[in-house]
Structures are given as structure tokens and as C-alpha cells.
Amino acid sequence: MRTTQIGNLVQLTWLPDFFPVNCYLVVEENELTLIDAALPFSVKGIISAAAKLNKPVTRIVLTHAHGDHVGALDELKRRLPAAKVYISERDAALLRGDRSLRAGEPQMPIKGSVPKKLKTRPDVVLQEGDLIGSLQAISTPGHTPGSMSFIDTRTRAIIAGDAFQAFHRTAVSGTVVPLFPFPAMATWNKELALASAVKLAELSPAVLAVGHGNLLKEPMEAMKQAILRSEQTLRKAGS
Q1: Which region, left, alpha or beta, applies to residue 144 given φ > 0 means left and ψ of -120 to 50 means alpha?
Q2: Half-sphere exposure of 215 (CA within 13 A, CB side)
Q3: Which pLDDT tens digit goes with each residue over 87-137?
Q4: Which of 86, 131, 137, 180 is deepest in the core (most CB within 10 A)?
């Protein structure tokens, strides 16, 4: 496991040179918020990293319900029973293994590894604008119907889940990066993903933290270029 820290944000990365999977610890005054639960074998690393920060994990916040973001959830909840689990109201259904679509949503199959056997259920379901400690929830559908990002109101760091990726190249969810196509392959709706990427860029984040790839300081130029490539790709697909 690789650990990278920028201010109050600690990135934990597994398989960094092949298939990087990240989760994050957000350091609050007296506690820690874990964002995403990585892979089933990530439990030990998460617990160890939290112990080094010498603060308890009181919240487990999920950007979305794909397997590489919730893999360690059940075991983490068993070891940290007091930690409350948060996910968007929409992706709470995916967390139960329910891939069904709702009225008004694009009727496209939900992609990616949706869990089938998770026992953990959310303690809190999130809506746009909700505050979780220093974090504010931002609805960023596209990768999944209920994907959420979170902005640290102290530092303007955005933890974006798979709304962007940053391995080999910064890209909007749904844009294929030839050496790492997997987030694109698991994206439900590319048009919504693009709109969500634009929404995040409009917040002018100081740091962009994604599910796959390195932390990006001063990410605006990389985000703008990724959005431009996504727009061009969608135009070509529609022509």
C-alpha cells in the first residue's frame, strides 16, 4: 500500500503501478472520515493508516457502490462498528445489488461490479449539499446513477470517486484511456458523466482526488483538457 498526503487528505493506494485503487482518509480535528472502502484485502492497510493518525474513524463515506470502492466495507464495519456508513440515496439501491432503473433516468444498463453479497447497509443516505464533517456532498451521476463527489470546505480538495480518473491520463468517466480503460467500461451514462465533470470543474478545486490515479494539485488545466476530450468523443459518436 502506498500512502500520499496533501494537507488534511491522505490517499491510500493499492496496486499503484498496475491497477491503482484508492481510498482516502480525511483528517478532522478529533476524528477521521474514510472515503471509499477499496478492495477486500485493503482492511489491514486502512486500519493501520488510521492508527498512525491517532484518531478514530467515525464515518465511512462511499462515492458509489462499485466493488472496487466497497470491497472492504463489511469487514471494516465489523471492526469499526461505531463508524456510520454514508452513500447517496440513489446508490444505496446498488449497494443492495439492485440494478433496476428509475423513471426519468436514461434507460441504459448499469455497468461495473455491483455487489451481490454485502451485508452492510447505510446509516445515512445523502442528498446534494449535505455536510459530513468538513465535507459537502456533490451529486455527480454518470459513472453510476447515484455517484457522489465530496468537497472539503476547508481546502477545496475534491474527492471525485470515478467522475474522473488520473492513471496514465486525466479523463472524464466514460472516456477510454487505452492503457487503463476499466473506469470507462464501467460507466453507465457518458453524457451525464460529462455534465458532472463540468460541474466539478466549475468549483475550481485546489486538489483533485480520484478513485484511480495520483492526487492532482492545481488540477484545473488537466480537468479542462479531459472535459474537452470527452466533448469531442461524444460529438464524434453522435455524428
Answers
A1: beta
A2: 20
A3: 999 999 999 999 999 999 999 999 999 999 999 999 999 999 999 999 999
A4: 86
R_g over Cα of the chain: 16
41-54 in b/e form (b: 16+ CB < 10 A) is ebbebbeebbeeee
- Nearest-angstrom CA–CA distance, 204 and 220: 7
Domains of the chain: 2-238 (3.60.15.10)
Phi then psi for residue 126, to 5 deg, are -100, 150
| The C-alpha cell that represents 120 in the structure block | 452492510
| DSSP class of 228 | H
CB 91 within 8 Å of CB 99: no
Q: Report yes or no on whether pTM surpasses 0.85.
A: yes
Which residues make Cβ contacts (< 8 Å) with residue 64, sequence separation at least 6? 87, 88, 91, 94, 143, 144, 146, 147, 148, 161, 162
Cite the DSSP H helix spans in 17-66.
Answer: 43-53
